[in-house]
Amino acid sequence: MRTEVRTTANMNINKNIAISETGFVFNPLTGDSFNTNRVGQEILRQLQKGASIDDLYKHLTDTFSVDKATAEKDLADFFMVLKSYQILIEV
Amino acid sequence: MAKISYERPVITKLNTGTMNKFGTRTEFAPVTHIDGVSVKKLIADYGSPCFVISERTIRNTYRNAVRAFKTRYPKVQFAWSYKTNYLNAVCNVFHQEGSWAEVVSIFEYEKALRNGVAGEKIIFNGPDKSEEDLIKAVENNSLIHIDHSDELYMLVEVLGKIKKKARVAIRVNMDTGVYPMWDRFGFNYENGTAWATINKIFAHPELELVGLHCHIGTYMLTAHAYSVATSKLCDLAINVKYRYGKNIEYLDLGGGFASANTLKGSYLQGGDIIPTMDDYAEAITSTILNYGFKMDELPTLFLETGRALIDDAGYLLGSVIAIKRLSDGRRATIMDFGVNLLFTSFWYNHRISPAQEISSQTEDMVLYGPLCMNIDVVRESINLPLLNKGDQVVVHRVGAYNMTQWMQFIQMRPRIVMIGMDGTPHVIREKESLDTMLRYERLPEHLEKIG
Fold first, then answer.
1. How does pLDDT run across B195-206, given as a tens digit for each residue?
2. What is the predicted ipTM?
3. pLDDT band (50, 70, 90) for residue A1
4. Min Cα–Cα distance to chain A from B333, Å
5. Contact: B13, A33; criterion CB under 8 Å
């Protein structure tokens, strides 16, 4: 059974990641738990739905008071952290 | 529909382990005002970075120190330690409160005179006094604290030339049980050099030994060391009385009282481990009172504490230039102030607060300054709320030494503002400009043209 959702050209998100409404995140692949803020939750949920990078930018700028340049910079940094926690997996 | 307020996405790994015995940290409350003045407005009006000094805090801290000593001992005189912060506005707050001046160079000496301090109320310390400096001090009837034998001999020579007398003290260094021992200044007590120097002074009628001085260290974490120091100065004073029949007029216990800043490497916060002003006062005054002086011959107690009187009154306001991530995953935040302005960050973990509303999210980060050099690190590791470019912060307890030891390196030094008792901000030192720097440069004629 496929357990990853393709998100970008070369990265997938583990779709079994559990996200609570309060921002508690559990990665069953590693057994690690995390805490994330509102914007972080939104990004993870969108990634689970299979959103592309462009979809994400649009969603963030439509939903939050942020410009595209800031969203782009923050997202690049956030992806790097997600990768280090094996929430995003390089393919 | 209004958009939701944005905060940079952050995800923090939860680690199980031993609980922190101090519980959850709660010090992230934003500091939006200083003495009722908005930090945002201070930065808008005076720029970022910018030092801010609270006149109210200086006066309150000083009055608390005076209370601690004067309620225990009848004759107390504070002398403001110019080197700790010699901005005229700061010095004059202390002078208005009744402080004399304690200086360690002719630069500071002349600054005190210009501030209107009477010559006889200036204590001239330090190892570097030239012949001209000594003449000036003698003519103004200042108290000269002799640091070494060469100074003693030079002073004797000077007095022979100008046919005047000088009021002097010697600085005494000693073992107080705190190491490393500060023995580079003054004459040693244990090996007899201090006593031998006192005898030399009495052999010269042009020298009047009026006081005994010591300064046992800095950021002293035990008040007991002051009991030991006081006891040794009292011993010398009693011996002077016994041998020469002269009452020593004052004992100067110097400074070295700790402020509530946290030293690097300290497990506990500074405020939790330092002695209080009352602890220091009790250690010193009870030692003198119990030593055996007749009540009408008690020496005046001089104190030159600097750090403990001014640190709390100083703030540094600054802004975030950029945030980035280091190769090992750590967050790095670059501020518009660094070790150039915050010299004390070399030995303190300064408390830093955000100056605007924040969320409950925090992250560990390295805090860098703006200098293009590797040593410019304000905090190697600090947990702060999420900061973004342009966010403002308040650095606490920076009143001591930063505004005298700061460096003009690749940048101009910023404004210093004092918030007066009525809440009005006053610029007490202007921002430097390129002209400030170029005023002292000279260009040889053949180098004037480069093309």
1. 999 999 999 999
2. 0.91
3. very low
4. 14
5. yes
Per DSSP, the three-state class of B336 is coil
Return the residue of A nearest to B326 by Cα.
A77
The Cα–Cα gap between B124 and A19 comes to 68
- Whether chain A has a CB inside 8 Å of the CB on B11: the answer is yes
Contacts 24+ apart (CB under 8 A), B1-6: B3/A62, B3/A63, B3/A64, B3/A65, B4/A38, B4/A63, B4/A64, B4/A65, B5/A64, B5/A65, B6/A39, B6/A60, B6/A64, B6/A65, B6/A66, B6/A70
* The CATH number of the domain covering residues in A4-90: 1.10.10
Return the H-helix or E-strand segment holding A27. strand A24-27
**What is the pTM for the complete model shown?**
0.91
Task: Tell me the chain A residues in contact with residue B386 when contact means C-beta distances shorter than 8 Å.
Answer: 37
CB contact under 8 Å between A36 and B12, yes or no, is: yes
* Closest partner CB to A80 (pick from B4, B325, B359): B325
Residues of chain A with Cβ-Cβ distance to B14 below 8 Å are 32-35
CATH class in words for B55-311: alpha beta
Q: Is the CB of residue B411 less than 8 Å away from at least one CB of chain A?
A: no
Contact B9 A35 (CB under 8 A): no
| Smallest Cα distance from B173 to chain A, Å | 55
Provide the pLDDT for residue B25.
59
pLDDT tier for residue B20 given thresholds of 50, 70 and 90? low
Residues of A in contact with B8 (CB under 8 A): 39, 74, 77
pLDDT exceeds cutoff 60 at B144: yes
Q: Where are the domains of chain B?
A: 33-52+312-434, 55-311
CA atoms within 13 A on the CB side of B168: 28
Q: Ramachandran region of residue B186, left (φ > 0), alpha (ψ -120 to 50) or beta?
A: left
- Among partner residues A64, A74, A82, which is closest to B11 by beta-carbon distance? A82
pLDDT tens digits, B49-59: 999 999 999 99
Question: Which CATH code fits B33-52+312-434?
Answer: 2.40.37.10
Any CB–CB contact under 8 A between B5 and chain A? yes
Contact B258, B278 (CB under 8 A): no
pLDDT in tens, B251-292: 999 999 999 999 998 888 898 999 999 999 999 999 999 999
Q: What is the rounded CA–CA span in Å between residue A72 and residue B42?
A: 32
CB contacts of A84 in chain B (<8 Å) are 329
Region B123-136 average pLDDT: 98
Among A63, A64, A85, select the one facing B11 at the smallest CB separation: A85
How far, in Å, CA of B424 to CA of A3, rounded? 63
